[in-house]
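Team,

Forwarding the record for the chain on the shared tracking sheet. I've put the sequence and predicted structure together so nobody has to dig through attachments.
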Amino acid sequence: MSGTRISEGRERIPAEMSYKEWRSNGGTELYRQQPPPELPYKPVSEERYNQLIIPLKKMGVTIMRGSEEVERYLDLRGAEGDTLDAYTVLFKQKVSISSILEETHHVRQNRRGLNDDKDIRIRGTLNEIDAKKYLLRVAGRYKIPREEIEATKIQLKEYEKILKEYEERLGNGT
């Protein structure tokens, strides 16, 4: 069997590879992580939420938010939001500005095919790095709270570390 299928996140998994094999080979799922406990955030108001999802609606994205199934799915991943593909986004009921902006950015990445030419083991990490840098660039424009900016910086460092480790393994021929 050849071709690809989409993971529970956004990466394409080679059809001949099981999900377990893909994950053990370094495949990563993409989603906005919940902030660390030391950086609590205030969930976005309904009014602000409705303003922030306008771009998603204009793109025809299906948005699922706050149902029991969505909450359970995101809790299992330690995530506030998840872009399943270029047409479907999940959000927790209590969601941050950063999560909404990040998942919107991931939809755009998917539609542009960003990093689709890269190895499956690192594609997700590259997209996460791009999304975190985007959030830091637009923080002032969208009035992202300081706690969310700090959480984004921490997450960016984590993904940059993953990328560096991957590049070091490549340099060693592994």
